[in-house]
């Protein structure tokens, strides 16, 4: 599947990264993170799509920081494209936003909580862009077939499916690695979201908690199973982050993780090519 003129992805080829801060906190923060992520991925010859959100519409509390809004957020993402020649991805939250967001981004993302909303999926498909759909915490992997069909009803077959954990009782998630193989059987590239998978939704009452220390392990497991890409939220100073402070990965530690992930991916896919 072709994401941009220069980036093609599949479950069989070298993995690519979707990475960046959870939410846009400032232009300076976004540009700093994008520059360092590009330097890291260039050193290891890994394709990068930069991610950050202009709005976090599903925050636990009415007083939680949501982002700069669509207009300013898209301006900042355009700056990333212009300054660092990076493709970008962001999520949208209402069908009427899809067209305006698609004017800037290279890949459009459907949030997990909205992954069954028909109007969201068809609006995404009608943009003609590649779509990354987060599998809802409440959906089975084989249920994503209906999600794919809704998008493809628009004539757009450029769909990636993203695993991000499933609800495990209240305020916790668990990852069923079988889902990766099940979604691959739908004939689409599969992405593993390693940082949202270790969330504890709403666990702190007015915000979500999480277990950042397990995110690298889950990424290694997903790459061992063979996926097209890894999604990871990365922040220069996670404890100070305005969203997902408990799960974002530290920017200054990210290169060491990427090196390990690439070694696993190379080993698994080289082996599969020689079987």
- Please mark out the parts with pLDDT under 50 across 5 or more consecutive residues, or reply none: none
The number of helices is: 8
Provide the β-strand percentage band: 15-25%
N-to-C CA distance: 23 Å
Please state the oligomeric state of the protein chains shown: single chain
Q: What spatial order of strands do you see in the largest sheet?
A: 1-2-3-4-5-6-9-12
Pfam family, one: DAHP_synth_1
Domain DAHP synthetase I/KDSA: 6-268
InterPro entries: Aldolase_TIM (IPR013785), DAHP1/KDSA (IPR006218), KDO8P_synthase (IPR006269)
Protein name: 3-deoxy-8-phosphooctulonate synthase
What does this entry look like structurally?
This protein is an alpha/beta fold and 275 residues long. It is 34% helix and 17% strand. The chain has helices at residues 27-43, 70-84, 98-102, 118-126, 144-152, 178-184, 215-225, 254-274, and strands at 16-20, 48-51, 88-91, 107-110, 131-134, 159-163, 166-167, 173-174, 190-193, 199-200, 209-210, 229-235, 249-250. Helix 1 links the parallel strand 1 (16-20) and strand 2 (48-51). Helix 1 (27-43) runs parallel beside helix 2, helix 4 crosses helix 5 and helix 7 packs parallel to helix 8. The chain is globular and about 50 Å long.
């Amino acid at each position: 599947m072709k994401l941009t003129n220069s980036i093609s992805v599949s479950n069989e080829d070298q993995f690519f990264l979707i990475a960046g801060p959870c939410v846009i906190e400032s232009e300076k923060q976004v540009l700093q993170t994008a520059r360092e992520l590009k330097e890291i991925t260039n050193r290891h010859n890994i394709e990068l799509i930069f991610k950050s959100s202009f709005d976090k519409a599903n925050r636990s509390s009415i007083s939680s920081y949501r982002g700069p809004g669509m207009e300013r957020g898209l301006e900042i993402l355009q700056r990333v494209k212009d300054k660092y020649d990076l493709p970008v991805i962001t999520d949208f939250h209402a069908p009427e936003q899809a067209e305006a967001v698609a004017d800037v981004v290279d890949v459009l993302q459907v949030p997990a909580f909205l992954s069954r909303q028909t109007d969201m999926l068809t609006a995404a498909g009608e943009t003609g862009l590649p779509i990354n759909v987060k599998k809802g915490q409440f959906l089975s992997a084989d249920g994503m077939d209906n999600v794919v069909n809704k998008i493809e009803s628009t004539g757009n077959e450029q769909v990636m499916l993203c695993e991000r954990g499933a609800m495990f009782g209240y305020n916790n998630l668990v990852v069923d690695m079988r889902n990766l193989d099940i979604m691959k059987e739908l004939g689409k590239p599969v992405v593993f979201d390693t940082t949202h998978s270790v969330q504890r939704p709403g666990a702190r009452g007015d915000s979500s908690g999480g277990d950042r220390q397990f995110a690298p392990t889950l990424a290694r497991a997903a790459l061992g199973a063979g996926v097209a890409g890894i999604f990871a939220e990365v922040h220069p100073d996670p404890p100070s982050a305005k969203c997902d402070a408990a799960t974002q990965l530290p920017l200054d530690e990210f290169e060491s993780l990427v090196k390990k992930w690439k070694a696993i991916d190379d080993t698994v896919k080289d082996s599969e090519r020689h079987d």
